[in-house]
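fyi for ur records
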Amino acid sequence: MPYIGSPPSEPARSLTIVDKVAMVWDMETGDPDDFLTLLMLLDHPRVDLRAVTVVPGSPAQIGVVRHGLALLDRTVPVGAYDINDTGGDVSAWHYEAFGDIPPSTEAEPASELLLEYVDADTTLLTGGPNRSLGAALAAAERSGRDWRIGTWVAQGGFAGEGVVPRERQLPKFAGKVTCPTWNLNGDPASALRGLGYGGMGVRRFVSKNVCHGVIYDEAMHERFEPVRDRRRSLELVWTAMGDYLRRRGRGKAFHDPLAAACAIDPSIGTWAEVELYYEKVGRWGEWGSRPRAGTGTWIITDHDHEKFLDTMLAA
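which gave:
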């Protein structure tokens, strides 16, 4: 299969922003769906993507993100939590689908970008361990800055028994109250710091019990096919995921695209206001949630799949 796309030769441009959700995307690259989310956010008609930050932010990861920007002909500030990190995973899929991608060290400190581009009118969308958010909160505290975050939408967390009705629990989570969750377990202290921060308007967690049920499979592939020429990103996603399905013979969980869609249109989800908590049990620790009014923290318990698709495929 030929590599998917090549960066255009014309100079990068910035989109004209009208009535869009101001957003910053904090991502990782150990999984295909973070990168596919980046592509779809870059040319989504309802998104003003102000910056992209990467955790941990190795040169290989920054190179992948910059390749995505080039494919969509966009100029967006890029930040790294730690540009000196040598272990930042880039999945083999990225190179299978998009060819050789050179590393890059062209990145600013992620915490500085968050402090610059996230404000009371911005949505911070996180798809990996929340180290950059934790670093930005610590920096704001040290400087005495009253930093405001409009909305934090995090892919991660867990809502189970006592929050999600049994008939809506995925079989593998049925009856569970707590569960390990990768993104929050990647830096529990930063996640807890974000949960306790008083300068946030709303916190929304797109939890495992729902996002693990959203799969890019042959049926979703067919939904992308007739509309893939609406936007450059949809063509790239359709081509990349077609190759993924052929190579692996199975679908791919679309955790981060669901979180991104909920950041664009929260009405996609059914939400419960909760207290999110962490228990240090086992090797990694587990997260749970319990109903509690007035926290400003909401967790997804169900979603409207057609509205999700309509949002991601918007022209």
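The chain has a mean pLDDT of 92. thats all i got for now
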